[in-house]
Amino acid sequence: MEITVIHGQMHKGSTYHVTEELTKKLALNDSDIIHTFSLPQQGPQFCVGCFSCIYKGESFCPHASQVKPIVDAMISSDVIIIDSPTYCLEMSGQLKTLFDHLGYMYMTHRPQGIMFKKIGVAISTAAGAGAKNVTKTIKKQMFWWGIGKTYRLPVLVQAKSFSEVSDKIKQGIILDTDRLASRILKKVNHVKPRFLSKALFTLMSMMHKTNTWNPIDKSHWEQRGWLNKHKPWRV
After folding, report:
1. CA distance 95 to 82
2. Which domains are assigned to the chain?
3. Alpha carbon 227 to chain centroid distance?
4. Residue 20 phi/psi, 5° resolution?
């Protein structure tokens, strides 16, 4: 199995430790491959809003050299884990910066067909409120990429550092990651997108049939046969 882990922070706090706990329960074999990225060090700079990725192609992004390795890892992986600590009830700014660069992969533009067969995991921790909202937001991004199945793992740690998390909460993290890992392992290679994803994809295909405003997007859909009856989840 191949896994991509994107940490929305550099420090190894509670969110990092929850992600590590889940990852080790998924990567059970020596042959498993794990791609790990920690933001902002291994991510792009702020999006400048040039629209080059949309109208010219992703290779024209001024930060393409930082974005491409992350995208390549996600495309080759079975499971994509994205985490972020909760900052002021939302995800970290560095993770949002990465998401800003991936708008061209939305179903509205140039989705990668293989994404419909992948599993996504959104993880966040918070000392108080907000972790549920962060995982919901991360899941929303994954949905627009077409990821077939996404799980959320918000954790209320009630502490400012992982060393201060109570034994009871840490035991709960172990149990939660046990259950989630079991569900994911059963789902790998058996993912089918839900109805809402299929409906949105069909709607976008209808839109691109009459697309005269973005030839790059339309060509992307035409080359894959998506403007006819072909669907990426049937491959």
Report:
1. 9
2. 2-194 (3.40.50.360)
3. 26
4. -60, -40
Question: pLDDT, tens digit, for every residue of 205-235?
Answer: 999 999 999 999 999 999 999 999 899 998 6
CA distance from start to end of the chain: 19
Q: Edge to edge, what strands does the sheet with 79-83 contain? A: 33-38, 2-7, 79-83, 119-126, 149-156
pLDDT-based confidence at 6, cuts 50/70/90? very high
Give CA–CA dist 36/73, Å, rounded.
9
Rounded (5°) CA angle 190-146-180: 50
φ/ψ of 176, rounded to 5, equals -65, -40
Instruction: In whole angstroms, give the CA distance from residue 228 to residue 147.
Output: 21
β-strand partners of 68? none
Q: What is the 3 state secondary structure string of 67-101?
A: HHHHHHHHHHCCEEEEECCCECCECCHHHHHHHHH
Amino acid symbol at 69? P
